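Consider the tokenized backbone below.
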């Protein structure tokens, strides 16, 4: 979870996206951790991971998900799903914003 990637907060740092907010509420910054752990837009996917693994995907459980191969696979699948979704949503943000 480096924070790098197609997330609005990261793109905003480089003037590639005007608004760093997540579309889930337009006030919370769209970060990798927000999308992974608390964004309601990915709530069903998080729930599915919990159902498959028997462990809720919450911040204090991340070390468990990373250290165990059987859990890491589910975490990687969810991360890829999130990145694909966020990338599609923010795909038009490859041109710098210029102030006039």
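A designed sequence for it:
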């Amino acid at each position: 979870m480096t924070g790098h990637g197609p997330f609005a907060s990261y793109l905003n740092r480089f003037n590639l996206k005007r608004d760093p907010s997540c579309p889930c509420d337009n006030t919370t910054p769209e970060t990798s951790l927000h999308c992974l752990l608390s964004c309601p837009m990915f709530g069903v996917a998080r729930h599915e991971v919990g159902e498959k693994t028997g462990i809720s995907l919450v911040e204090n459980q991340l070390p468990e998900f990373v250290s165990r191969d059987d859990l890491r696979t589910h975490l990687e699948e969810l991360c890829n799903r999130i990145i694909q979704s966020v990338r599609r949503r923010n795909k038009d943000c490859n041109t710098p914003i210029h102030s006039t």
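The chain has five helices and no strands.
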